[in-house]
Amino acid sequence: MTxxxxxxxxxxxxxxxxxxxxxxxxxxxxxxxxxxxxxLASGFHSSVERECLALLLKGTVRLTVCPARSxxxxxxxxxxxxxxxxxxxxxxxxxxxxxxxxxxxxDPKPTARRPTATLAEHRNRFVASISDGVLILHASPRGxxxxxxxxxxxxxxxxWILEDPANQHLIxxxxxxxxxxTIDSIWAEA
Length: 190
Fold this sequence. Notes:
Number of strands: 7
Distance between the termini: 12 Å
Strand order of the largest sheet: 4-3-2-1-5-6-7
Shape: globular
Oligomer: single chain
Structural class: alpha/beta
């Protein structure tokens, strides 16, 4: 992705179930990222990711929204349209781009219109593949995002985690902790 956008691309993830202490810090991170010289990619599907997107749209950071479905025929929310019009937001779908996926997950249907857990896993792997590094706001222990984080760390993908006691399990496995005050370190490393 960096060859196209000429700046670091960072995947942004947050588990659906998220402790309150992480939610508040995650929103502070989103505010800190609004003017960042990076390209943020995410499904923006979990409630925290959606709240972050709303804050990010108020800034100048470039965004890629990756739905867990085909983007063909997808209704674009009105809040996204100004960012799309100025080239700050793109929509990319792993399904539409023929992303080669882990066969254990099964093949997604090329016309998938509704997100599923399997399509979300495909999407999350796609987002990681188009990114130079990964920022996780929270990954529930032993959850799907936690497993993906382990795979990415094993593959030496730069991995940052929001510093919070609820994220200690990923810090212990090598993810570098960040705070809203130190978030700018990610694009220096990505």
